[in-house]
Amino acid sequence: MHPWGKWGRSFVSYGTAAARAALADAGLDWSDIGSVVGADTMRCGYPGYVAGATFAQALGWQGARVTSVYAACASGAQAIGTARAQILAGLADVVLVVGADSTPKGFLAPAGGERPGDPDWLRFRVLGATNPAYFALYARRRMALYGDTAEDFAQVKVKNAAAGALNPLARYRARVTAEEVAASAVVADPLRLLDICATSDGGAALVLSSMEFARRHGRPDPVRVRAVSTVSPTYPKAVLDLPDIATDSAAAVSPAPHTFRASIARAAYEEAGLGPEDLSLAEVYDLSTALELEWYEDIGLCAPGEGAKLLRDGATALGGRLPVNTSGGLGSFGEAVPAQAIAQVCELTWQLRGTAGDRQVPGARVGITANQGLFGHGSAVVAVR
């Protein structure tokens, strides 16, 4: 990975730095790579639909197969899924996966132009509903349904900041108190500045290979990708999902028994032949502190409404029964959209290898990542060792 922050450089420099770090970690030369899959940088880093070929050119054209994918915040998982499919199909032995972004300060905004048929454009232009407004709706929903409090949300930030303080790649490496969260500015009630993640520059990369390739290159027991879930929502949706600001009617058709986010994890568990009881750790999408509590329930760590209790019991902190966001999460990194899901898998890899340093989860064997991309892109990866 390239350290995340606000560096003011091209996303290409972050992606190529992350790629070179991944190649060095794998003990491979760039010329060994048979395929490059790039997670597209569309919104902020560069005004074009470029990733795979951009990184291949920056590393030096050598004729590798190239693929570019876009699924908003799920782009990294789509890139990993594409690389894995190429390996399983026999199209490549070893694939480089890269994502990077350079993000302006402030709220993420829709692409320019007048596009009344675009639900993302509509929610910004017609309703003024920025991402934090959506996060606040979810937070208020949890307070109403489950009795969650602003203090519970603050404790998520306290937990993740403590982990981020141990991660040299994180943008924010200072511990935070609940009092500091409560004293930060209100952005979208009940969420404050320290309840929501920033926008960042950053890059992440992975080298994926077949087992045969790994063994030939002296890696007899590598971390294995056991599942990649990229499922879409099921009609009707009775809970808001960005960018839609309304739900479907459930008058004629009953909603599915599980939410969209829960279905993402369920598909990953089914493909992996594992369940939440097998997990050693999880990396989830803490776009806001309240959303992290939602993910606890969606990935099966506890029953609906019990996320805050799990947090209060200390189960999801470093040293707890099942640590969540040992990297420090987005609260410590900020959003660099095409790199985020790849960075989550980087953290799982270090944890499963036992090389995560001061934030290491003892004896880690199974991890899951989970997030969702705009417009209904599911994203979860299960890795094992």
From TrEMBL:
Domain Thiolase N-terminal: residue ranges: 15-102
Any Pfam family the entry gives: Thiolase_C_1
A GO molecular-function descriptor: acyltransferase activity, transferring groups other than amino-acyl groups
Signal peptide: none
Domain (Thiolase C-terminal): residue spans on this chain: 264-381
Domain of life, source organism: Bacteria
Protein name: Lipid-transfer protein
